[in-house]
Design a protein that fits this description.
Layout (H helix, E strand, L loop, with lengths): L2 H20 L7 H8 L16 H4 L11 H16 L5 H13 L2 E4 L4 E4 H4 L2 H12 L22 H6 L4 H12 L5 H17 L6 H11 L2 H20 L3 H12 L33 H11 L4 H9 L5 H16 L6 H11 L3 H31 L1
Antiparallel strand pairs: 1-2
Helix pairs in contact: 1-4, 1-16, 1-18, 4-5, 4-18, 5-7, 9-10, 10-11, 10-16, 11-12, 12-13, 12-14, 14-15, 14-16, 15-16
Length: 384
């Protein structure tokens, strides 16, 4: 396996790893995680909802390495690239990506059976089917009206891979593609995370260079949130603070940009009550990406500690784990990932990461080489 393919594999496995580590504790606060688990360190973690019975789990399973929709949609996007073998935009989201999630069955680990990814998706991700398969909208306007969340950013890493080494191109392609799904700061996060992954492929890249790339491209509240949280993480690292203080300070830093705090559950008492939660805004940011970057900064890029700090911090734990994971997977490949974790993720989710990585890396390399040929031709024209 060559270096590029290993880093592609690192991204895909790290997405699954962060997803599966965070899934059993998703939507719990940091305090609730600490009370129930202490500090989660293993894929073999019991899902807290199991103790609440069938009504709470809705027939789903988590723990023991089971992935969620974050990874399923990441793999689905890889498959779109493998079919089209070129750069993508919103029309591809409306076409092949919609087919992948709404018409082609795959193994859904949470269900323990083959099903449509659509059957597993949360409502903001089902918006893709509503807008493109039912409403027949203009693809670039597909994200209009959606709940603003991290749903596009969580699966966008493959766009960073096909633009490896070119953060600006990754940002632009992610915005073009994900405009069919998300708007406002939800769309912005997808562009910035794709840029982070692309930057992380640069040989010998540093954590600070990835952060700088994110800040240089991010807009509005997303930019300010990343600046605030990564700055805070640097200061807290100097102080060698406790984990409790780390999460408390980072949550305080994100609160001006994401006001819901630990109140992430949708309850009947909240229906009809006006708020700014999940609505378009130039001042807001999703939490998951700034937090993921902050945990990477605080741990100076240490692989497992960055992901584990992220998934133990509470709230949208699986997506925080995914975002930290794909950046670090792009930087390091598979060299820091425990073989036991890879084996469990592969077996539990019926995923052949070697095959997935090899086939996608081949297509990504083909796209990148074609881009380089175009650049050389342009340089020739300028030279004349």
């Amino acid at each position: 396996m060559n270096a590029f393919e290993d880093r592609v594999k690192g991204v895909l496995i790290s997405a699954a790893l962060g997803d599966a580590l965070g899934a059993p504790v998703e939507k719990l606060s940091r305090e609730e995680i600490e009370k129930e688990y202490g500090y989660v360190t293993t894929l073999k973690t019991r899902w807290y909802k199991e103790a609440l019975g069938e009504e709470a789990t809705l027939g789903k399973r988590r723990g023991n390495g089971i992935i969620t929709d974050d990874t399923l949609m990441t793999i689905a996007l890889c498959r779109v690239y493998k079919k089209e073998r070129r750069h993508l935009d919103a029309y591809d989201l409306a076409n092949e990506f919609t087919k992948e999630i709404a018409f082609r069955k795959t193994f859904i680990p949470e269900f323990g059976r083959d099903s449509l990814i659509l059957d597993r998706l949360f409502y903001p991700e089902k918006h893709i089917f509503l807008r493109h398969a039912l409403a027949n909208c203009e693809p670039r306007e597909g994200g209009i009206g959606n709940m603003v969340n991290c749903g596009a950013a969580m699966y966008i890493a493959p766009i960073g891979i096909v633009n490896a080494g070119n953060p600006l191109a990754a940002y632009n392609e992610a915005i073009a593609f994900a405009s069919g799904h998300q708007v406002s700061y939800g769309l912005e996060a997808a562009g910035v995370l794709a840029a982070c992954v692309a930057c992380a492929f640069i040989p010998n890249v540093t954590v600070q260079e990835v952060v700088d790339a994110a800040i240089s491209l991010a807009k509005d509240g997303t930019k300010q949130a990343i600046i605030a949280l990564t700055k805070e993480a640097k200061e807290l690292r100097k102080r060698k603070c406790s984990y409790r203080e780390l999460v408390k300070c980072l949550h305080e830093s994100i609160s001006p940009f994401s006001p819901m705090g630990d109140d992430v559950h949708r309850k009947i008492e909240k229906v009809g009550i006006p708020s700014n939660h999940y609505t378009p805004s130039r001042l807001f940011s999703i939490e998951e990406l700034p937090l993921a970057l902050a945990f990477i900064v605080y741990n100076d890029g240490e692989y497992y500690k960055s992901i584990l700090d992220g998934i133990n911090s509470g709230r949208d734990t699986d997506s925080i784990g995914v975002m930290a994971g794909v950046i670090l997977g792009a930087m390091y490949g598979t060299k820091y990932i425990n073989e036991d974790d890879i084996h469990l993720l592969s077996k539990t989710n019926q995923l052949d990461f070697n095959e997935e990585a090899a086939s996608f890396a081949e297509v990504a390399k083909e796209i990148i080489l074609r881009d380089l040929q175009i650049i050389r031709k342009q340089e020739g024209i300028i030279g004349h």
